[in-house]
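Dear Dr. H.,

I hope your travels went smoothly. While you were away I took the liberty of generating a structure for the chain from your last submission, since the lab meeting agenda had it listed for discussion. I wanted you to have the full record in hand beforehand rather than looking at slides cold. The sequence, exactly as received, is reproduced here:
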Amino acid sequence: MSPLAQPTLNPGETTHVPLPLDPEETPSHLPPAYPSITVPRPTDQYTAFRHSGFGPCRLHVARVLSSADCWRERSERFTKCGTDAWVQQREEDPHTFRVVAAACHDRFCPACQQARGRRIAANLREQCTSTRYLFATLTLRSQDVPLHHSVKRLYAAFAKLRRLRGWSRRVAGGIAFFEVTLNPDTKRWHPHLHLLLECDYLQIDLLKALWLRCTGDSWVCDVKRVRTFDEVTSYVVKYASKGFDPTVWRSEPHLRQAIEALSNLKTVFAFGNHTKFRLLSRPHDQAAWLPIARASDLIRDALAGDAIAHEICLKLWGRRYTNWLERSYRCPDTS
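The corresponding predicted structure, in token form, is as follows:
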């Protein structure tokens, strides 16, 4: 393991939550449409782990960001996401660890958005005592118009919906998650909202009627009962980190349009009585943390058979780490 050294991190560029280690899904070649991509690939084990499973998406997003001077700083933050990562140990509890790393916090960075989703879910679980929740989805009829027009229309219709008596008398509040897909055949945008609603009951036929009244042409909705708060957590993490799907980033012109249209958009927002919750607040941790090794060195040592390093990796990332090892490497013997 590496000798102790104090990490140097810029303010606002740290994350204290475990980062995702999805199974490696990056293809060995790029699609023919992208023969000249020169985006830097991960230069250390931790960065590779952090972004594993997101390789093609990151390459396409980085290419678009690097193509415009106005996004130069954003592009640099995006490509450096996960660098300068250190593993720290809690001084009063030597069995507790965390990772501190540079993070871009870009809405088109899947790893950062997953971390954001986990933070929202943790804060909601800590601050909210209600157990009466519903999941709902509101969609817009696809039109042959630019994305920013559809997004503006969607948000205006949802604001109108929240002012209707049929809604306000039943829904106390909630959280909205924006998602957009692209029809691969018609090339039309399909923006929609996934909603976590504090509500005892909301009849689907009523919601359809209210939504049609607000949009004028759209009535496709969905409502689902929540059984446990664990379902709430899973829902929040899933949709807070989703935002857009592969249909968007596989097309460079449409990806560029999406980046432009969503630049100043709140893709996750609370409404009603949920505006009182501090969903994005960081945990107040007064404990002392000691840096023990660079994250890349820790993973390298674990892969080389160091049982202690392997055990720390298990504490930090659990099943995601073991799944990655089983797929890509031979797990070290810790018996």
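Two observations you may find useful: Strands lie at 86-90, 93-100, 133-139, 171-182, 189-199, 221-225, 268-272, 289-294. The first helix runs from residue 45 to 50.

With kind regards,
E. W.
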